[in-house]
């Protein structure tokens, strides 16, 4: 039965209390983590990608993506406050729609976070390499700074930053979150300076034609730029490490949404109004695909003719400032991006390791993945394993491909939570809800429809990749996870061997013995 093996909410909460991560995050740190995850790649890197797909119409793309995220985040806020444990959409789905759906959601989140972290690592590499080249007048070989799809061999700077972030996460969430807060302040300051310098000199001519590729281009750009909003999902995975989560989780989710959306709109307007954002076309008059070899060749031809476009830049905001007469400020913004983008990588990997942690704790993945470091109190085994994969993604794939693949997993998870919050209102209406999603019968269906619309707007290759990943997930589930699931075996939790965590089995499913062999 597809909706079988539901894990009771009471059991989920008891499990978390028994084998818990250290609670160290407050509302301010959660908001900083959210901003760190959201204001990053979408502004610093994917602005050029969105411009190539939609032209100035990317302003509307930001609105569409932000709106879908807003309604989904309201659903997330209710679930995150109600179920303050690691696992995010995976945990919520387990409590509402059963183990198979929960497994598929968790599998999609694995795709989302690991690939997203790789994408931001590539974006970071672009800014740092550009900064070094402009500051020291060097020409760093593309072979060492771009992957095979981009005309290089391996992206070494991207591998380096992924490894550094892995180390930060292994030594502890508190230390990681503190570093993240500093980086967020640098990032917001740099973007504020960009807005101050670019918005006052905007010219309305840059906004015409507004939608050169029609509404389909705007939709495609919205599907890509949605990548920048996955921070909300990642923040909800930190619930188990949050002090007073019933109060702090909604503040962290909704507070970071409001701040980030304002920045998106102002920065995008500054780019369009100063240097323009029209797509680059082939000689035959066709708009070229972002990240393609054809676009790279056309951009090289434009550069040789002295007419570069923002859509060709791998450091769009720094390039814009240089073009409007602020070369040194442009370099400083490049430096800020180089310092700040790691905060996004950190947030993505933070979410990824916590998803693995809770899936392992439920028996769906090997127990070694939920092993907690005795000193740092972090799931170090899976953190290191995740770091290796992120570094490989970053080394060999371009940012656009990685971002779109990540979005497919994100949209699936967002839709699942929106469904879960509606179902739970019916099946568990009496449970305390510190935060209630307003107008749930309107908000949740809009969120579901919005996620489906953006998913459909992704490229065909991306959608096929997601289907393939889902198929592999089903094979893993039926070959390994289903037979080892604690819920499927009638055990909601198992006693830990770790001497630092005393065995305290929670009540099992009705009619099943406890792990200690006693009757419920």
From TrEMBL:
UniProt keyword annotation of Acetylation present: no
Membrane topology designation: Multi-pass membrane protein
A Pfam family this chain is assigned to: AA_permease_2
Compartmental location: Membrane
UniProt keywords, alphabetically: Membrane, Transmembrane, Transmembrane helix, Transport
Chain intervals for the UniProt region annotation (Disordered): 498-520
Entry annotated with the keyword Protease: no
Main location group: membrane
Matching Gene3D superfamilies: Amino acid/polyamine transporter I
Transmembrane segment boundaries: 27-48, 60-83, 89-106, 113-132, 152-170, 182-201, 213-232, 253-272, 329-351, 381-403, 409-427, 439-458, 464-480
UniProt-recorded name of the protein: Amino acid permease
